[in-house]
Design goal:
seven-stranded mixed beta sheet, globular, 35% helix, 633 residues, alpha+beta, four-stranded mixed beta sheet
Amino acid sequence: MDSAKIPLILRMPDPGVPEELVIAAIRNLIYRHEALRTIYPTDQSGAPFQLVLDQFETPIPFCRDGDDLEDIDAVFHALFSPPMDQAVEIPLRVGLNFKDRRVATVVLVLNHIAVDGASMGQIKAELARYLSVSGEKISPSTDDQKVNIQPLAVARQQSTVRAPAHERAMRYCENILTSSPAAQFPRFRSAALMDPHRDVVSYYHRVVLRSPALFSALQKLSKRNSGFRAANYLSAIFAVAISALSGNSGATLMVNFSNRFREVRRSVGCFFQEALFSVNLLSQATMSEVMAETRQRSLVATRHAQYSYLSFRDRKARIEADRGLSIRVGTVLNFSDRLEQNLRGPASEDRTAGEQPSSTMKRLECLWRDEHTDLCLRSSALNGEVHLDLIAHRSVIEQDQIESMLTAMEQFLIAWANEPDLATVTVAEVVERFGLPASSYDEGWAHVDHSWVNTAKLAQIVSSVEGIEAARVSVEERPSEGRTLVAQLVGDPSRQDQVRAHVLASLRENVDLMCPHEFVWCDELPESGSPTAVGSRASDSAAGAADVPVSPESPVGGAGYEALAAALEIALGDAPVDMDCSYIQQGGRAVMAPAVMKHLNQLGFEGPTPDDLLGPWPLRAVVELCVKRVSDE
């Protein structure tokens, strides 16, 4: 199993630092902070647990002669590329670039489970302090060098105190997920699915806008209305940009921040938390209304951002099974901890009289490979400039559209600073006037259950099931039920269970689909718009998928089938495994999903991930992903 990684590059002052001094400094850093010497093995049941190592091996550095940019990049890739198994490897790798036999650059790659963004400054400060005694020997680590209160001890103290808050947070997250779109961007396509034979270097575009004018504009806006901060203005226009680009008036966002208790404010650890909030962006809503809504909802979300990720993942999986769709929450808003503080500083001085310095746009590399994100906007302020750093999945937006979006957001906020009346313009007017990239959907799509559904594709998938002669999918308005997704089918009604299971399996690769709420069996498809009174009608909530029987004509057995069934015993016990039912519907939990995948790998199969196991599709769809390792054949 691999883990998310965070790089940290430190340039040493001339003429460089002796290697032994650097290694001693890094060892001291690891000894001082529990998080950097914690691994996550599994117990006999397969559940992971934290193990803080009192004795540990200092990481062997990857070394390279040369300190040019390509040399540093080569060291970084050598550390970043190999999978980092958090069960056995301490969460820190070290690389050294040498110049004249002395260390000129230190490259660290850290497991995200051990550090967050706020930890990086602490790591830099401590290493700088250790290395400032260049040429002197660092004394051995002693107990008094450890942080007085470690994160693990605080977590134990807080676990019972915060239990009620955790349950409230879970109920809040359930409410958000119940009304979220299946996908903010229904046209998302995994890079592996877009071109499975291509080795994609980067799944993401990344563009950074640096703007002195936006720095001045946000200063002006914040001073004009003390009730709103710069983050509120950025959140509002980003929400509008998301709505325009996705074509969905409802937007669900995650705000990333460091949720640190006072006791561990200066500790190294991962206190990263995601606060979920949704906002409704009707085209005729004014920007002042959008501002008020995003501020209020983000405040409520922040108050509920104290929860267990594993509990969240379990509840998300159950809601997906109930709704008959796969929920993709991949839109992220991330503010620098010092954004507001830095905006209180002086604006850029690089200007001539009466002229505003121009903004710059730069395309950068992004090495994210997990594809969990659709759009991520990171906002910061430094040296009189605001930096808008947008990372976007290649299937969601093109690079020139990213630049158009960032420019439109910048220009709107600058205009708002100079034209207070822009508070009364509508969302639709902002999109049109400032040229935000926008999407629309043709008649092959329908909006139901807060989501855009590709009904034309869904009909093709239904028609591909053996025994189905023809199919049409449409939305009907029901006085008591609202908008209902109805599949009209011509064929053998006994195939309904197979149709349902096939649609659910298709959700793994298609975020623009959902399971029909109702199946109507017809002798022939009626004309478009005609009543569907022919044949029989069967309601079908996705929750009923747990009752799908194993079809005698479905392929049963095979090495992959047997291996997955054996691996699932770790999580499900000795109970019979129903491959036509999802993992979560049989009592599976997120905490055990990695153990199931690890045991499957030990049995000689690879392919599925824990996320594949936790989806609303039947386990038969996971079996199809199981591939015998070449070395085991």
